[in-house]
Amino acid sequence: MPVLQPVHVLVLGGTTEARRLVEHLVAHDPGVRVTTSLAGRVSAPRLPPGDVRVGGFGGPDGLAAWMREHGVDSLIDATHPFAATMSRNAAEAAARAHVPLLALRRPGWVARDGDRWHAAGSLAEAAELLPALGERVFLTTGRMGLAAFAGAALDDLWFLVRSVDAPEPPCPARMEVLLDRGPFTLEGERALIRRHRLDVLVTKDSGGDATAPKLTAAREAGIPVVVVRRPPVPEGVPVARTPDEAVEWVRRL
Question: What is the CA radius of gyration of the chain?
Answer without folding.
Answer: 20
